[in-house]
Amino acid sequence: MATFRDLFGRGDVSPAVFAGDATSWALETDLFKLPTVVAGRQVIADTVSSFPLIAIDRETGKKVTPTPSICARPDPRESSYATFGQIVNSMTRYGNAWVRTVARDAAGYPLAVEHVANSRIGYTFNDNGTAFTSVSVDGRAVPLGEIKNIPMILEGGSPLGRSPLNEIRPALEQLAAAMDFSASYYSTAALPPYALVSPTRLSEGKAADLMAAWSTARRENRPAVISGELSLETFTPTSAKDALVLEAITYLDATIARVLGLPPSILATQALSSLTYSTTTQELARWLVNLNATYLTRIELFWSDMMPRTKYAEFDTTNLTKLAAAEQLKFDADAIAAGILTIAEVRATRGLDSLDADTRII
User: Fold this and answer.
1) HEC assignment per residue over the chain
2) Which of 107, 149, 328, 334 could disulfide-link 96, Cβ–Cβ 3.0 to 4.6 Å?
3) Does the pLDDT value for residue 16 go beyond 70?
4) Mean pLDDT of 57-81
5) What is the mean predicted confidence (pLDDT) over 195-199?
6) What number is the average pLDDT over the span 114-131?
């Protein structure tokens, strides 16, 4: 049975306090090198960090201009793309992203923050593990009001999140084993479906180098280069055992995509459901729904807490679902005809000047 130490990290455990470090939830490095894991995490981080974070007025529902610095460039030392990319990568890897306030305005609201790497964080819990009693950075205590975490999966009252990838650790281990098995035909009991053939005798070292290069290419799902007079020869059909391994890899790849909230098409994995999407727009809309529920909302709520109550933070995701010109024109016409938008409102979204007749709804 997992102990409290196993679940919440390393450190000294007593009935009154638990001490740990913020890298506790990380899987072994090798599991994070799995191609689907690398691709999935990078797609999520790149997508989220590409969205501008804007401020919305709660009373009018309109964008606040100019955008507050805490949204436009949270950390003055780097781009917002870099800041949010690091935050999302920490969330998917460790289950937490730590953000420290480094400057405040005259009213006490944060003007600038920085992302703090999980490896630099230490913390202690109260006696029942439901709240932090202290947080330190590089071994130095930081006031609790100056540093907070953005958690992923919360459970059991703990303020410390867990990574979705950590929750499927057995599946990741199985995928690593299956890919290693698939890439090591020449060093396992499996029957290889092909061979690299040389017209001349090769030294043991040269042959070993060629086998290693070929296995590495298969493990990383990339083409291998066959140079010189070497040729690739298929000499036996894939065995039932090998076919099952390849099927397992496909299934586990799709499982990782599902846990990360990614539509299978984005990672080129197999769909595990019968749902189909006829257009790219529909697929992107599906991706946006998952992204919003899993990552965007967590960051938006965290950032909104750092702003005056009259404003809230929101990612501008319009670029992801931007329609083609013909689709946009039809959407606008349908919205005007249904009385949802006025001509003036449509023209405003296009960046066009208002006309006197634009106030009519047609």
Assistant:
1) CCCHHHHHCCCCECCCCEEEECCCCCCCHHHHHCHHHHHHHHHHHHHHHHCCEEEEECCCCCECCCCCHHHHCCCCCCCHHHHHHHHHHHHHHHCEEEEEEEEECCCCCEEEEEEECHHHEEEEECCCCCCEEEEEECCEEECHHHEEEEECECCCCCCCCECHHHHCHHHHHHHHHHHHHHHCHHHCCCCCCEEEECCCCCCHHHHHHHHHHHHHHHHCCCCCCCCCCCEEEECCCCCHHHHHHHHHHHHHHHHHHHHCCCCHHHCCCCCCCCCCCCCHHHHHHHHHHHHHHHHHHHHHHHHHCCCCCCEEEEECCCCCCCCCHHHHHHHHHHHHHCCCCCHHHHHHHCCCCCCHHHHCCC
2) 149
3) no
4) 94
5) 76
6) 94
Q: How far apart are CA 88 and CA 155, in angstroms?
A: 20
Tell me how far apart the alpha carbons of residues 38 and 59 are, in angstroms, rounded to a whole number: 42
CA–CA separation, 329 vs 327, rounded Å?
5
Q: What percent of the chain has pLDDT over 70?
A: 71
pLDDT single digits (tens) 20-49 = 444 444 455 577 888 888 888 998 999 999
- For 150-183, write each residue's pLDDT tens digit: 999 998 899 999 988 888 888 788 777 777 766 6
CA-to-CA distance for 123 and 141, rounded, in angstroms? 9
Average pLDDT of the chain is 78
